[in-house]
Every structure is written in C-alpha cells, then in structure tokens.
Amino acid sequence: MSTKPSAKASAVLPRFDLDGQCALVTGAGANGGIGHAIALGLARAGARVAIADVDADGLAVTAAELAAIGPPPLAQIADIADAAQIEALFAAVDRDCGRLDLLVNVPFAFPSRVRPHELELEHWERMLAVNLTGYFLCCQAALRRMLVAGCGSIINIGSNAGESALGRGALPYSCTKAAVHQLTRELAVEYGGAGIRVNAILPAQTLTPGLRAHLETPRFRDHVLPRILAGLPQGRLLDPEDYVGPAIFLASEAARAVNGVLLPVDGGNLAMNAGGSHVWPAATE
Ligand SMILES: NC(=O)c1ccc[n+]([C@@H]2O[C@H](COP(=O)([O-])OP(=O)(O)OC[C@H]3O[C@@H](n4cnc5c(N)ncnc54)[C@H](O)[C@@H]3O)[C@@H](O)[C@H]2O)c1
C-alpha cells in the first residue's frame, strides 16, 4: 500500500501539520511512557520539540530519538516541583527556540499506595507539588510567553482517575488529576480570548513501564488486571501510541476551536457505567 497521502488527504492534512511550531514536553524521559510517545509524535508531525524530565538517562534516550527525526532537541533536567528549575527550563526554551507554541504537561508522582486514613501529610504535599503545583507553574510560565505572542496551546495530561474514583490508595493522585482538569477549564476560559487554547487528554490504564512492572506481580496480574480490563470496553490496555494522534490534533490548526476540552482517550472507560459490560451474550438472555 502506498504511504503517499491521496489528493483528498493532502488537502486536509496541512491543518494537522505542526511544521515550524516550538513545543515543550515535560515528563518525556520514560522510554515507553506517554510523554515519550507524544514527544516523538509531535516531532514526526513537524514540531521542534524540547523535553524535560528528572530522569537524566531517560531524557538522553528520548533526545537521541528526537535527533533522528529533526534538529537535536533541548533536553533539560528539571523537577517541575521546583519553581526555580521551572524558571530555568523556560529560560532555556527561550534561548533554544525563541518562542513557545505548545506546552504538554505529562509528569506525575504516585510514590506508593496508602489508605486515606493512614496518609502522611508529607506524602499528600509531595503529590500536590508535582501533579498540581508543577502543572500550574509550567502553565503560568508558558502563558506569559504565549500572551506576548498572542497565540499558543497547552495540553495537560489528566486521568480517568480525575473523573471517577479508583480506590486502592489513589486518593491524592485522583484529587490532583481532578484539579488538573479544573485548571485546564479555568485557563481555557481565562485565555481563550487571547488566542490561547488549553485542553486536557485523559488517559486510562496504559501499558507503560510502570504498569508493565506491576504485571510481574501475581496479585496484580490475577486480581487487579481482570478488573481493569472489565472496565475497558475495547478489551485491552491503552498503548502510549494511542495518545499521539489526539495530541497532534489538539496542538494543530485543525483544533483551532477546541478549547477547555477534557478529552478521554480511554477506550470507552469513562463512558461505561459500573454495571455496564462488553460481554455477550447478556446473562438475561
Ligand atoms: N500510565 C497510565 O496507566 C496512566 C493512566 C492515566 C493517566 N496517566 C497519566 O499520564 C501521564 C504519563 O503517565 P506514564 O505512565 O506514561 O508516566 P511515565 O512514568 O512513563 O512518565 C512520567 C515521566 O515523568 C517524569 N517525572 C516524574 N516526576 C517528575 C518531576 N517532578 N519533574 C519532571 N519530570 C518528572 C518521570 O521521570 C517520567 O519520565 C501522567 O500524568 C499520568 O498521571 C497515566
């Protein structure tokens, strides 16, 4: 089959083209993670992609892969829980690209699963610092630049856990993700008139290195995984590649009127009622 776009596709595809855009993806250092896949996907769609992460080794792998697609990227070690490191990161982006068209916020902290009544304040505060304050500070730094330019787009990575409860010690994670969803809507309303769009992608359980590690545990594989799969109408875990198309769309001119949207990319997880099922024949027949 030819990979050359048809004449009809050629007329539409330029609206998805990110050629000439400068993007920053935070949390792009986990090889096989969602940020990693999105960073490479944006680069393949034409964007110049800067990346940041706390993981220096992972960052180097993503940087090498990006350099095989386009120009060698800015790859900055930065902890988004640290305001000074965020400032240094955005100053480096200014020097590297001279502008910022797109910010994608990906990192998260979920150090361990603790039942809410036993949760230490320090644990709660660490999760807020990365998952919420870090996202806010990165949005703020991006907005200051986008306001000067009069345009720009932000994509926050939220979660199905921000829209419904997971249990299993997910309380602080879920609360921060719900707050990221509201951060997205507030910023979209606040800055829509300034030509800046702010949207969120809401993943469901995805086969990333973190989840792969859980699959090694018999208790997870035998008891938790079947429950997760029962809630995914497509009958499979999500794949990091599943987020690439939606991210390119949200970043592109094709989504110019899409603002303040919380886009589930979850195989139908949030659409499904707890009593729903994708199992046939129905037991009532
Ligand atoms: N994987 C899933 O099943 C799933 C489900 C729903 C939502 N999500 C969301 O998707 C996003 C990506 O998840 P993933 O599983 O691909 O993650 P991942 O672990 O593969 O990647 C996250 C990256 O963020 C980096 N990071 C962590 N703390 C950081 C910090 N303070 N500063 C900078 N970088 C930091 C990590 O080093 C890692 O490279 C997260 O926001 C997560 O909440 C994931």
TrEMBL record:
Source organism superkingdom = Bacteria
InterPro entries named in the record: NAD(P)-bd_dom_sf (IPR036291), Sc_DH/Rdtase_CS (IPR020904), SDR_fam (IPR002347)
UniProt organism field = Aromatoleum diolicum
The record's section on PANTHER family has: SHORT-CHAIN DEHYDROGENASES/REDUCTASES FAMILY MEMBER (PTHR42760)
> What protein name applies here?
SDR family oxidoreductase
Q: Which Pfam families match?
A: adh_short_C2
State the family it belongs to.
Answer: Belongs to the short-chain dehydrogenases/reductases (SDR) family.
Among SUPFAM superfamilies, the record links this protein to:
NAD(P)-binding Rossmann-fold domains
